[in-house]
Write a structure and sequence with these properties.
The protein is mostly helical. The chain has helices spanning about 1-15, 20-40, 45-50, 55-60, 70-80, 85-105, 110-125, 130-145, 155-160, 170-190, 200-205, 225-240, 245, 250-270, 275-290. The longest helix is centred in the middle third of the chain and has 24 residues, at about 170-190. The two termini are about 25 Å apart. About 25% of the residues are buried. The mean pLDDT is about 90.
Amino acid sequence: MKLTLKKINTFFFKENTNFEWISFFRIAIGFLLLLHFISVLPDFNSLFSTNGIIPSDILDTFIPNNIITFPKIITFFSSFGISEIITTLLFKIFYVAFSVCLIIGFSPRVSATFLLVLQISLVKGSSFYAYGVDYFSSMSLFYLILIPSHYKYSIYTYLKRNIQISNITPYKRLFQLHLCIAYFFSGFDKVLGFNWWNGESIWKAINLPFANNDFNFNFSFLAHHSILLIIIGWATIIIEMLYPIFIWIPKTRKTWLYLTISMHLGIALILNLYIFSAIMIIWNLTNFYTFDNKQTL
């Protein structure tokens, strides 16, 4: 019993001076959020303004009154005589500024906090447009608020010389277990039905209207070789459901990590979900990739 408790204590609280993983995560997420935001700027008003494609009064029907959304921010500042154009411009400036602050490590926790408020106001105010990457972006910012990420590759370190170092192992364990649970239940959800067993879900995915538009791969041969669809479907289920097991075993960790990254690269190239795939690859590299043999998980 004592030996088990000691192992659990070591697993969750062992001192670890490896800060590269959280610095990588901060910089990568900062760049990704900035890139994602810039990519939607041409359509920003159509998606998020009060007079967008779906008017804000219709969207508000599905949103509780206590949730802060971008249209509510516009309405709030308009009561002080500030026009929607000015509010929108300032919102864009602050979003970009906080993303840059996150990248360079200038008060990263404060930057992540304000950026999370802005990001959630967009997601909650336009839930019809939101998908997986938006929720993983919110969770990423939450982790950057929770975990101190300024120890390395941060301007904060240079501005403030005397920094008290804290043990960040418990944070990483929480992050790793979160990722394992997410993959397991994603695979578990797929195995409950029959669409992934017979390859139907794969066939539907590659034939979606928005899929395969960039590279235009010819998948017509799969109609005559349905066994390949079944193999891909079951491979996805196996990779996800067994992720919490094989990612922890040293001998299989790299193999499972590369399999998972390859799965997300396939999603990016075929389904054109580049930002979503990128954030999932970042999560995997952050939690289970070691940059050299001396580093430990």
